[in-house]
Amino acid sequence: MVLGFESLPGSLEKLFYMHIVDKATKFAKNEYEKNDLFHRWQHIENVMKKAMEIAALVKDVDYESLKLAIIFHDIDYNSEETPEDNYYNHPNNSTRIAERFLEKNNYPHTRIRKVIEIMLDHSTPHRKRFGEAKSIEGKIIYDSDKSIFITTPELYKKYFPLLYLDETKSLVKFK
Ligand SMILES: [Fe+2]
Questions:
Q1: Alpha helices, DSSP H, located in the chain
Q2: pLDDT tens digits, 80-97
Q3: Can you give the residue ranges of every domain in the chain?
């Protein structure tokens, strides 16, 4: 019988949570080698660092979902023919890899759905088509993925108005 997280005692639950994030990290590091230079593991580390800074400023963050979504969000940036197709299709392509990995590791289905929703929230084309991120984790992944690119006045103009959270805006140094 496979137990859901909810039925595990608190300390065990935490151990298992750590375990899945660590396992996902190990798996993903190899996968990101297949991507172009802008979407390698270093990018995930940069997004994760920024996301943790933002998350520390807001309440009630589901850290495990957020971390898993960040780990997987750009994981398949390589299976399409052109860079443009990779740009438009990588959110969906990446959710397929996440889903397969998490299912194989007996991660609960409701939690997988949540991770996938957060992953999709990082994409601007997805946001334009399906609307704003609803969860705090979705807003954090978007903000962290975009705010790390604000390094010039042009990029400030492009990305700053798109940021969801005042907490993220307060962290942007470049004006
Ligand atoms: Fe990204």
A1: 10-31, 41-55, 63-72, 83-104, 109-120, 124-130, 136-147, 153-159, 166-171
A2: 999 999 999 999 999 999
A3: 8-147
